[in-house]
Inverse folding.
């Protein structure tokens, strides 16, 4: 595979290896680690009893056999659900087997941090706070509390294995105020005048534009880079988009298919 520009891009597994395994489960993250992903992406939400769990949607309906909002359920309620069998149900001739029940149970952020700590190689973690404004700082407080327990909240500058991402500038500002050396990523799917100028909110140094922005407004990437920001693009699954990101020299791509992307980049 040839590229116009040689560049080592960090390959981040979006919700784990979520094309192959049920998103946000141990099965998906173990597959991503096995596939060679450099980093793992996860979304976090607070349960009714204050635990951070890795779930993308506000409700559990799409990705489990249960119903209801994550915020209205306790961890024990979530632990009784199956977050695996929905995956592949459409065209499967038989129920997919994702292994032991633990592999498709609700995944706490704590368990994911343990998995990364025990992976046996350097793996980074990109944690996205979902709907944090509703919780008036509780998501960030709990997140920092957990990161502190794993000694990850106050890294040496430019040497952090963890970063916090959000579409909410307010959420990032809370993190930046409490943990100034923890890197933050401002996610966006809109091209604002501020973004066109290469500016990010607060002290955020990493931009997380959607691939649509990168496709239609590549100059935005250049402005961000000129302003000294890293650029992490989501969600990059196709050859053309990988090539585009490589040409533009972005630092990270977030993908549902880490194995295929690594292979496309000539790293497998
Ligand atoms: O990594 C950023 C990306 O995950 C944001 O979109 O909806 O997949 O959380 P979403
Ligand atoms: Ca996400």
């Amino acid at each position: 595979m040839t590229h116009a520009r040689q560049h080592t891009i960090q390959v981040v597994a979006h919700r784990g290896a979520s094309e192959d395994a049920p998103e946000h489960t141990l099965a998906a993250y173990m597959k991503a680690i096995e596939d060679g992903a450099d980093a793992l992406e996860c979304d976090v939400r607070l349960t009714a009893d204050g635990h951070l769990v890795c779930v993308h949607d506000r409700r559990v309906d799409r990705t489990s056999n249960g119903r209801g909002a994550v915020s209205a359920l306790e961890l024990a309620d979530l632990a009784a659900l199956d977050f695996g069998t929905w995956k592949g149900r459409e065209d499967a001739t038989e129920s997919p087997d994702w292994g032991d029940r633990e592999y498709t149970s609700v995944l706490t952020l704590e368990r994911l941090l343990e998995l990364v700590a025990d992976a046996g190689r350097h793996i980074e973690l990109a944690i996205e706070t979902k709907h944090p404004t509703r919780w008036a700082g509780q998501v960030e407080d709990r997140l920092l509390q957990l990161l502190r327990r794993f000694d990850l909240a106050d890294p040496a500058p430019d040497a952090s294995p963890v970063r916090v991402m959000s579409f909410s500038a307010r959420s990032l500002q809370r993190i930046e105020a409490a943990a100034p050396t923890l890197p933050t990523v401002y996610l966006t799917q809109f091209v604002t005048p501020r973004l066109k100028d290469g500016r990010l909110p607060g002290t955020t140094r990493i931009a997380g534009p959607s691939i649509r922005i990168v496709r239609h407004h590549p100059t935005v990437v250049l402005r961000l880079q000129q302003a000294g920001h890293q650029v992490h693009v989501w969600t990059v699954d196709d050859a053309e988009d990988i090539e585009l990101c490589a040409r533009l020299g972005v630092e990270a791509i977030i993908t549902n298919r880490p194995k295929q992307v690594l292979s496309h980049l000539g790293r497998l």
